[in-house]
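anyone seen this seq b4? input:
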Amino acid sequence: MQVSVTFRNMDPQEGIKEYVEKKVQRLKRLLNEPIDIRVVLDSEKFRYQAEVYVSADGLNVIGRHNEEDLRAAVDLVMDKVERQIRDQKGRDRARVRQVSAHVVVPAEAGPQVIESEPYPLKPMTLEEALKDLEAREEDFVIFIDEKTDAINLLYRKRAGGYGLLELEV
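predicted toks r here
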């Protein structure tokens, strides 16, 4: 984790720099390496502004807060940034993933993709997947198991009944 602290319109204070670095360590458990964090502390008359720029895992978050006390400004902006990171990661998990189903037909030169269409990959339980399979014309359902977050394939057997494949990534 790379942290840089910049002071604008004020003298650098070692105690404040250590305080900021201590507060930034909270973000380490939320993000994967490499993490780049830039903190800019600005003084304007009787108010302090703290700005935090976080870049990690394709996630870019910016937080700003003005306050009369510098440490309070740092605390509040770190709370904002942490909340933004949690919200963004929650949205990423909830987003429905898409996979493409391909029909492969052998040809003289080798297999070729004849038809391709997006297939929604939704989080659901096994019971919900069974209901979804019974309502479909297709003989399979691909889904994310809500309990294990694993990708599963539920299919209809020709002899009757159902089969379940738990895919390992």
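The radius of gyration is 25 Å. Residues 70-94 form the longest helix (25 residues). kinda curious what u guys think
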